[in-house]
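## retry 2 of 3
previous attempt timed out at serialization; input unchanged, resubmitting
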Amino acid sequence: MAGQTAGYGDLLRTRHAARLLGGTLLGRLPNAMAALAIVLFARSEGAGYGLAGALSAIYGAAVAIGQPLLGRAVDRRGQPRVMTAAALLAAAGFALLAAVVLAGVATPPLEGGLRALWASVLGDEERVQKAYALDAAAQEVLFTLGPLLVTVIVSAASQSFALIVTGALGVAGTLVVVTSRPSRQWRAAPHEAHWLGALRSPGLAVLLGAFFFVGIALGAVSLAAVAYGDAHGGGPVAAYVLAANGAGALVGGLTYGARVWSGAPERRLRLLSVGLALCFPPLALVPGLPWMLPLAALAGLFLAPALACGFLVVDRHAPAGTVTEAFSWVVTSIGVGAALGTAAAGVAAQHGGTAAGFTVAGAGGAVAMLVLLCTGRILTPSNLRSPSEKDRNGAVEPRFSTTHQA
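## retry succeeded, writing output
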């Protein structure tokens, strides 16, 4: 573990790396806070659970719609102008306390933007892969801290103030990123405009399909964990299960990123998807809590590695000049899948019990694996385009040679 820590420390000491990662995580805190903040505010105004949940779902749908649209705008116009304007509009949506559609659609595509910057900041595929792993692992911490922060703000102030802080954090994190030199200098590679944008890549379409079913698994686990908690005494049981799942993902991501991997990442992603698929079904055994926690951790073990490897493959298959949009489609794909997975697991748990809810997660993981295994001819290094050239400002869009070993 000491060697792993040293490796990540070296990465974060690279000029701009810590600022970009920290700013992006700060700016993405609203993604982890908004759902709970919206529900609590709606409830404080007298709304029922149905309306409160619908408003939260509308926000999530708006984020899913806005991310690829804003990602395409970033690829065309650069990061500072698009992301700053988007963050301010999103904050205004939260401040108005009702414009959840505006807050969602205008959420700046910080995830895609950060992944587009890593190659120019870190320089080679091995270090970028490590950064993807660190990002995926840190996201697990982010989505644990977000709801906790909302709870603290509501206790200290009010539900409406929690929404205002949610928007303000998005603006603050965005400004940290877009005022940095890499963000200001970055430009997408020159490319021919196409109405499909990044979606014209068959390889990217396959990846988005796989990520969609991973999202279904994640959403199902979240709902099934609540059902499990209700069946095992309530209280913080569901939180324990989800925390164990997040801890497994954190350990898996940090361990994966600490290694130097050889061979094409497309093949490695297929292997990781097998591990991910095999680790979800044991949750349906729904044993007592002492056994459930290790199973939940196991279910998360391959998650961050699969995401980190998937990010690298997305970068390799996205058409030239569309990298931010491509990564933003990943956010949308996982988000829509998670929403549907939550709904499906809710129906399954209501009619078939907790085990049925976790079975939905297992099915999502299995289908994601099958998508990748059955499309090997599409996801091959021979289908990659040639590396892009430098743009007019000298910044390089993240592209890597197919012969470089990750």
